[in-house]
Amino acid sequence: xxxxxxxxxxxxxxxxxxxxxxxxxxxxxxxxxxxxxxxxxxxxxxxxxxxxxxxxxxxxxxxxxxxxxxxxxxxxxxxxxxxxxxxxxxxxxxxxxxxxxxxxxxxxxxxxxxxxxxxxxxxxxxxxxxxxxxxxxxxxxxxxxxxxxxxxxxxxxxxxxxxxxxxxxxxxxxxxxxxxxxxxxxxxxxxxxxxxxxxxxxxxxxxxxxxxxxxxxxxxxxxxxxxxxxxxxxxxxxxxxxxxxxxxxxxxxxxxxxxxxxxxxxxxxxxxxxxxxxxxxxxxxxxxxxxxxxxxxxxxxxxxxxxxxxxxxxxxxxxxxxxxxxxxxxxxxxxxxxxxxxxxxxxxxxxxxxxxxxxxxxxxxxxxxxxxxxxxxxxxxxxxxxxxxxxxxxxxxxxxxxxxx
Length: 405
Known about the structure:
- By secondary structure, the protein is α/β, with parallel strands linked by helices.
- The protein contains 15 helices and 16 strands.
């Protein structure tokens, strides 16, 4: 028996990783165009999950819909049984699990989007007696009508806006919703989307869609295997997936970021990325030459481009240049999939060989005073560099023992 995920664009999907932790059946990703659906369904696949954009399209091929899938009008789980195709909606359980985990009560919700996912969310809200309104781009009410519903205490993004690889986008301005208690984004890659960053900035409680994804996958796997599963697995799987976050190292030039980063990569089996080396690759010259020929502003442009690129990916150790914190815009691309550690070292011990902006102790002291506040704003935790091995151990312990924030 083999299972998988049916969709159109799946490079962002965690579903294979999740199902492989739930059970030992083969599970793969199947990217198909709409004209390929019938052939896929007739293949030797035993069952499959369905994601954007086929949760409604798939219904016409099915012999049976569960009552919930039928009432919602969307299917995300299909299994073949006795020559028939049976359709279910396990997204309902996933979103219900996520909403319950927040431990809050709500009176009115706004759902962004009117696609298949919004239908499932609507059903959950209705069953919980939470009033809601859907906003969309074209159908009335639209996103422009947001102010008419400014008494909402729950906002849910049910669109793919802000999802990898189109990170950094959001649909609405949260300042227009002064009574919000919680913002939920069903997107889970990146871990912190733009709208969730806006929530953080306003001290509004928030959640991404990872817990929903895992919960619906567990319910789907229960259908695939025809047996009950332990829902405690949801928390275990979430913790395992979060181990794939990046570790970002910031700090003064010569503080040991690259040395610690390489050792971290060795022990965690994550890819090591040195942003300064990446800049030298795209510029085809050493950093000192970039500064000499084009000045610091051009270097910072290169740096911002690299940060936006590598910050989208996961399972990396990212050692940054000393001045990455000078531009506050770099924070969100770095943080979206990462824990950020400030590597702090006595200024007199900093290695300044080949550092274009710090060639004397006085220059180093001035740089520290200039950047100190920004370093602390970027950092989730400060690690004193008292030795490569000790610092590495401290970061590994903190990263794997503490929750993502």
